[in-house]
Input
Amino acid sequence: MPENLIIITLKDKYMKYSKIYFNKPWIIFCCSLLLAASAAAQTDNDAIMMTKNNFCVGAMYGYSSWKNYWEGTFKRDNANLGTVSSQMVSVMGNYGITKKLNVMFSLPYISTKASQGTLHGLKGIQDLSFWVKWMPIEKQLGSGTISLYTIGGYSFPVSDYVADFLPLSIGLRSNNLSLRGMVDYQLGSWFATGSVTYVVRSKVNIDRTSYYTTEMHYTNEVSMPDAMQLNLRAGYRSSKFIAEALVGNWTTLGGFDITKNNMPFPSNKMNMTNVGVNFKYNIQAVDGLALVGGGEYTVAGRNVGQTTTVSAGAFYILNFSHHKKTTKTASPKTN
Amino acid sequence: MKKSILFSFSIIAVAGILFFACSKKVDGRTDNIAALQPAKTDDNAGTWKTILLVSPTEFPVAAPIATNTPDYIAQVNEIKTWQKDLTNDEKNIVKYWSAGAVLRWNEILRELVAKHNLPPYQNADNTYPFPSANNPLAYPLFPFANPPYAARAYAYVSAAQYDALVAAYYYKKLYNRAAPYNVDATVNVLIPKSGLPSYPSEDAVVEGASVEMLKLLFPGDQDYIQLKAEEHKHARLIAGANVRSDIEAGEALGKAVAQKFEIRARGDRAGAAIGTAAQWAQLETDATAKGEIPWYSLESPKRPPMLPLFGKVKAFLFDSLTAISLRPVPPPSTSSQLMKDQTAEVLSYSKDDSREHYRIVHFWADGVGTYTPPGHWDAVAAEDFIKQNYSEVRWARNLALLNMAEMDAAIVCWDTKYYYFNPRPTQMNPSIKTLTGIPNFPSYISGHSTFSGAAAAVLGYLIPDNASKYNAMATEASMSRLYGAIHYRVDCETGLVVGKNVGNYAVIRAQNDGAGN
Output
């Protein structure tokens, strides 16, 4: 699902913030019958900034699977696929240019498999994503703090993987340009974040020289519909432990339904609504080290799998500033 | 500082979005091709050898009215009236249809095949429903345009178009009525001018024959087919290419000729090709009796075999005894070391799923939801025929030769598949995972290889300069089934040979049909 970077702010007892995030671009992929993944793998959905010259880097592992999927609006299983699963290992990083301007990246390796039938799974490095995240406004509102963000993202395939072998493809191959507006409100140790994202997707090339959608196309180029992403998350943060619940929606603006008993196609109308939880534990003994984990489930969808995803990872903050003293802390985003 | 960042950011975002938005447009390869301007008019085509017609005059075409009569002048004025106020849509349909009637109807047919090439979803009790020609709009939609069905559809439509055009060219020469723009120089002709007599209209002949055949083959898509037919006729009229009486005579001739093909189609045994449960069981019994492991469906739930009696369908290029004589020697016994070796080779390809193998496998897969391998070869042929600047009648003749060979290849291939009822590699070794779907019929011989061998033989004769290209493509198509781990090498290599043998019957016909090359 269009879930991505989730950044968690840690508020320590000295009212400083250290920031840890994790990224789950693979979820998207996993969630879908097909991968709205790369499309969704844009930027973080969270309202946290790394402080200047700090670099947070980490790795995530994720496993997702589905047995039932929506063929258009018809929910079914398929004994010729059984359970379709994917595993993902991703590296990601977030660097603070300033406390209000961050850049991020992620790069996942994905492998897929069907438990029944004869189809061969696929594997490979998927899409490299970059984001620029800017926090222009941050101010007191009531007894909490409100902050506004703009996030621009770009992703593109970095290997020659196969897009047109859904649901076993590891991605859709489009280059994606995303623009997100996000608002965050924090009150003590409680927070809520909401964001809206528009994703522009480039056309993709497939190995066949023609294909049928709702009409014939005598070309190997496929025009990909754009997509819209909504994300709401809320939860609790402390210096040791963070927990949040989230609901996310990915809606493809156009595209067509899988026809009855047909195979999925990259330009299908893939929609999904996911709910999930994320946790983070900040290792007190090692300043800057955090363990993260989470789970998500697709509660509604169209032309995607009903996916369950679990993930876990570890992140560490490196400080490249000359002032060692500020290592692994960040300028307060609030207060 | 803040403002300049915001400004730069906005500029980049807007520029990026515009770039992406502009790059989304996708054109088909034949969307913008030039109008057909035949290198030679083939105005003696009325003498070419027909396929089903006994003679080009079997369906008489009445003599046209003279071009100096009030009625004809009124028809020319109809063109002029249309031309006073042409919309962009009208100009676009003129451009579309001017690329060639046979080309466009072939593309429409490929579209219908792709739309209908979907195996039915199972019933709640894990049996499968079958489409019904009498109730084409009920699920499962009729037809399931699988490769044999498609091969036969391409053949009938192309053959009917060809015979109808031969008759049309006969009457063109007989009556020699000039095109409206050659009668009245003030007609604003929107297509390349031709010295070919315009009565009856060759475009309307193709349209009439196509509509009539498609009524039989795709009875649930009449709205779309009729829309295209009306558009085609209108395009010819407003382009100044034909007067109404050219079109009406052409359409009537096309339909009449197609009806003869329709009668043949209703009696060619394709309707019984699905077989019965008893016949399916008999195939298994027969294979077991020969000491062989019988094929079974690898789909879940198990699907009845695809068109097991298609091998008995009446071929276009040879009689039923010849069809049987084209059946190859048996595959290696399922209990032989040779079969074990072949299976092991398939397993090695299953494990060697390189990107290049995926490219080849998927380029040629032509599976569910596509226009099938015969459609792929029609696409290959069409793109090369465009460069040859054929006349409409030569377009039809060459596609008919190709598509009759493809249908007859399907017949020989399906006869072979069900005669030997040989299991797929994955049935012999379930650890063989495939790079594309496994078709639901026996392994020996490869359909893709048979279709491709036949196509390469026909196309290589028609365009000798491309013969080595077609052979290389056929070999790649054939091997794609081994790379995809769905066929043994022997299926592919034998299929290619059998296909070439079938294709040679079309070549012999081409050498003797009076058309030359």
Q: What stands out?
A: Residues 273 and 300 of chain A are 5 Å apart (CA to CA). DSSP finds two helices and 21 strands in chain A. Confidence is low (pLDDT under 50) at residues 1-43, 324-335 of chain A. The longest strand of chain A covers residues 84-98.
